[in-house]
Amino acid sequence: MIRALAFALVVAALPVAAHDLRVFASVSGQTVTVESTFSSGRTPTGGAVRVLDADNVLLMTLEIGAEGKTQFTLPEGTANTGLMIEVEVNEGHSDYWMLTPDDIAYGQGTN
Amino acid sequence: MKTLMTAAALAAFATTATAHYGMIIPSDNMVSQEDGRSIDLTLSFSHPFEGVGMVLEMPEAFTVTHGGETTDLLDTLEDTQVMDHAGFATEYRLERPGTHVFALTPQPYWEPEEDAFITHFTKTYVSAYGDDEGWDAELGLKTEIVPLSKPFALWEGNLFQGIVKLDGEPVPYAEVEVEYYNEDGSAVAPSDLMITQTIKADADGVFSYAVPTAGWWGFAALNTAAEPMQHDGEDKAHELGAVIWVHFEPWATE
To answer: Confidence class of residue A93 from pLDDT cuts 50, 70 and 90?
Structure first.
């Protein structure tokens, strides 16, 4: 919950009209998988995935991969603080997933 | 004395006149990522408008269906009290986005006052992380209400529609009982006839009902099984209920 509060400012900065795109991220071991889909069930053919740390520092920008999936290695030192993952396909089509420390611990089987 | 007896008689009448409901009530039915990752579910058997509980024995089945995959959750159930009677509770982690359908198959309940067994196949739909994929899922239960309206993200006053099915086939003119979960006891019925409202499906088994207020509403489509059940060596009717619990949201303005 504290982590969610820390992310609140970042969330507020995102556009409101973000409902068409849905972003979900999960962890398996050290790999983070980001899944981006439209509410129609189709997947975006391109777009940017921005990975920020809990202090809102941009760690990396990645391309959306095949079938809307993007994978990267969990950045060192972020397991206890979490990540903000923002996906922007184009103007008006963006969404985010707050990868919380609990999400990471669950995905790593340590909670 | 006469007054007391009348009151007692009325109380007894009120209990028998209203509907039985299998219940699955989640702590939240539209879970956003900010809400957390888990929900609590409470299972019971009751008269939901009057807040009168009955004992729910350990169910025959309790499952969650997501993305076409069904998972047994029976082992996760813990004893609890609902309306002063035995029920069950569990916590469930929503691992992925999409609609999660929770379904309860109870043991047949012997109701001496109705001289019949009652089995209510009960379910409710929970959306995780802003994704409604799978909201119209049909589970293939013995009897089931298949939603035509998305069974969440509904305003109070919205029309709710579903198809009543028995053995996978629509039931023409099926009787559907509708009852409000009067959780805080604040709702008052001007007549006993309005504790449980009764409607009928059309020739295609489709029923429609517009709820007057926000909260949890239970829809129970009732049919009698082709096969009777035995009680003390006698054939008894077996009521098969298809129950769905749907939450309606209050209209909100800033």
So the answer is: confident
Q: Under an 8 A CB cutoff, do A102 and B37 touch?
A: yes
Contacts of B133 in chain A (CB under 8 A): 41
Above 70 in pLDDT, residue B226? yes
The CA-CA-CA angle for residues B149, B151, B153, to 5°, reads 95
**Does A97 contact chain B (CB < 8 Å)?**
yes
Contact state of A24 with B131 under an 8 Å Cβ cutoff: yes
Predicted pLDDT of residue B18: 67
Q: Which residues of A touch B97 (CB under 8 A)?
A: 22, 24
- Partner-chain residue, chosen from A11, A41, A98, that has the shortest CB–CB distance to B133: A41
pTM, entire model:
0.90
Give tens-digit pLDDT for B46-89: 999 999 999 999 999 999 999 999 999 999 999 999 999 999 99
